[in-house]
Known about the structure:
Blueprint: H1 7-12, H2 17-32, H3 40-54, H4 59-70, H5 75-89, H6 91-105, E1 120-121, E2 129-130, E3 133-137, E4 147-152, E5 157-158, E6 161-164, E7 167-168, E8 171-178, E9 180-184, E10 189-192, E11 197-200, E12 206-210, E13 216-222, E14 225-226, E15 229-232, H7 238-244
Antiparallel strand pairs: 1-3, 2-5, 3-4, 4-13, 6-15, 7-14, 8-11, 8-13, 9-10, 9-12
Amino acid sequence: MKIKQTAGRDQLSGLADEFAKVNDDILFGEVWSDDDVISPKTRSIITISVMIGKGLLGSSFTHHLAFAKENGVTREEVGRIITHAGFYAGWPNAWAAFRMAKEVFDDDTINHGGYFGMGEENKAYAKYFTGTSYLKTLTPKDAPQAVCNVTFEPGCRNFYHIHKAKEGGGQILLCVEGKGIYKEEGGRKVIMTPGSVVYIPSNVKHYHGAFPNCWFSHLAIEVKGEETSNQWLEEVKEEEYLEDCKED
């Protein structure tokens, strides 16, 4: 996905126009946007690792930490990246990097889930997800209608599945935070942002999840039907998922 960068022109216009053009149009517009082989997340890991090694731990490093977070690097991952780099780049560099990463990543799992909150890690269904998801059940167990808030970390999506029913059934998704995708096998695709609503008919093979660089939360509302059940199927391959996330 192409990155539109204007920082160079915003800060250097009239002083270093050519440098600003190379920064915005070449470095970010071409190099960072070339995700056919190296994903944005991997590029962020490379960049922060090189910066730790070079001791470039100023405001630019903070920016790239935040960019890494947007590209799907988690709090746990950045801790391990800095630890690994510390053995090669030196302990003082690692300590400096940790202090800055703590500021950027301390809220990594806070304030997600929209108005309803993200709930607990969805361990019961973890085997049907690529990445980590969180589940908050909003209705009591004896309620006639089940409503849950499901939160996906960046890049997380569930496996292909089918809401089976003899009659009626299916599911309704209502996005409450972030950006995600709903995709039917060989068919309909919906890019979901806050307020987006998707009705999933029964007996349709599909998956849904977050975009690679964004958290995503949706309400999941089960539709009543006869002889309803969920059938979990195969994992969605990385290349298929990334292709689906490309916006027209």
